[in-house]
Amino acid sequence: MTRGYPSAMPTYQRRGDVPRKRHIQFRDNGTLLTEEVMGLEGFSGNESILYHLISPCRVKELGNFEPIKREEWVPDAHAHRHMKTIGLQPEGDALSGRRLLMWNQDVEISLCRPAEPMESYFRNGEGDEVVFVHEGTGTLETIFGDLPYREGDYIVIPRGTTYRFVAEGPQRYVVFESEGLIEIPRRYRNQYGQLLEHAPYYHRDIHPPNELKTHRDRGDHELKVRVRDGYQTYVIDYHPFDVVGWDGYVYPWTFNINDFEPITGRIHMPPPSHQTFAGRNFVICSFCPRKLDFDPMAVPIPYHHSNLNSEEMIYYVDGQFSSRKGIEIGSVTLHPSGIPHGPQPGLAEKSLGATETHEFAVMCDTFHPLKLTKLAKELDEPDYAYSWYEERGESHTYDQDPAGATSHL
Ligand SMILES: [Fe+2]
Q: Are residues 183 and 231 in the same domain?
């Protein structure tokens, strides 16, 4: 959760052609190129330096500004929530199809099932993005080069990155957007930035853009930029990916949830052991198949807990969730702050002796309360709040994987 020393991006990268030193003449067919320093935290954070054929300030036409509208749903009662999202209908593109589910001042969490290709290019000018790809493959075309993605990828897109999704087949995303930086947790890195031996992933698991393509065509292109809580459209008369080379620490990258190395203990390990990303007042965690707690007296599912100043949102990605009532692939649970949560009646007893779990889930814990949208109301399963109000074992179904969805609750 700390901003600390520059840690946003994995390592130094270079693509295409760059001059031998910064800030010296660099030409393409005799034309002096436009050097752009794209940096964070003034001139003190990470940066990349890009060399453009055309000034990135050049605008042919200022288009519309569309403010972002959020339709809040304030439930009648403060309670645990379960939303089923698998039936969400595809709509819009990879940007316009983002449907906000919950948000606070630090993070916006949206679901997205794009129905059509992105015609415009997009840049988030006020936030970092992490797109979890639940279903689908494709390429994120970016100003830094092509970034292929596949099912299970987290696509990490720093602010300022101009991009376009080019999807192959049906897609299903969970999108996190934040005004703050989204980073690799500081405790995973040494003072030089290298990932430590105890970190659950390594630099080899991080995939930067693989190929820079310099576009020289001069036709009109539409560029949308998220700024000031809205979308500003610009028309430019050149291709936005006009970079002949870049280097630095700021660029988009992917990390696949299957490459997260789970940490297991003799007794129960807390959620921070699953942390994947650090945001401003929130974390994103990955729950992956793993051996469960192995002490003979261990209770391999979590104790009840009151996260007094945290909210816990979990998106269920894959696995057998039948031991948790009603949970299915695409389910979202929200266990809000101020009230305790834990396994439902009988599950702790049933879990004894379980040795492994086969589930995947993505969790976002926030320090500030999350507001819900009308979409959350549409998808809400109101019975969930009463799922602890049962006699032990009543109406639960158990399979051979009794740790089930509760293993990461
Ligand atoms: Fe929890």
A: yes
CA of 405 to the centre of ligand 1 (A): 11
Residue type, 152: G
The answer to whether residues 315 and 86 touch, using CB atoms and an 8 Å cutoff, is no
319-361 tens-digit pLDDT: 876 556 678 999 999 999 999 999 888 888 988 999 999 999 9
Q: 144: which 2 tokens?
A: 């830094």
Residue 8 phi, psi (nearest 5): -60, -40
In a domain, 222, yes or no: yes
Scanning the structure block, which residue is given the tokens 């393509």? 213
On whether the CB atoms of residues 140 and 155 are closer than 8 A, the answer is yes
How many angstroms separate the CA atoms of 240 and 121, rounded?
Answer: 8
Q: Give the environment of ion ligand 1: residues with CB less than 5 A.
A: 312
Q: Please report, for residues 17, 56, 86, 108, 146, the alpha-carbon distance to residue 139 in angstroms, rounded to integers and kept in the order given.
A: 22, 23, 23, 23, 6
What separation in Å is there between the alpha carbon of 311 and the centre of ligand 1? Answer: 9
Report the distance separating Cα 391 and Cα 347, nearest Å: 11
Sign, CA torsion 179/181/182/187 = negative
Query: 182 and 208 in contact (C-beta within 8 Å)?
Result: no
Residue 20 has pLDDT above 70, yes or no: yes
343 within some domain: yes
d(CA 141, CA 235): 19
* C-alpha of residue 19 to centroid of ligand 1, in Å: 51
CA of 313 to the centre of ligand 1 (A): 9
CA of 52 from ligand 1 middle (Å) equals 47
Q: Which H or E run contains 374? A: helix 374-379
Compute CA 56 distance to the chain's CA centroid, rounded to the nearest angstrom. 27
Measured in Å, residue 237 CA sits from the centre of ligand 1 at 51
State the distance from the centre of ligand 1 to the C-alpha of 396, rounded, in angstroms: 20
The residue to which tokens 């104790």 are assigned:
303
Q: Say which CATH number the domain at 249 has.
A: 2.60.120.10
Does residue 79 sit within a domain?
A: no
Dump pLDDT digits (tens) for 45-88: 999 999 999 999 999 999 999 999 999 999 999 999 999 999 99
Range of the domain at 207: 13-70+89-256
Query: In angstroms, rounded to a whole number, what is the distance separating the alpha carbons of residues 323 and 292?
Result: 16
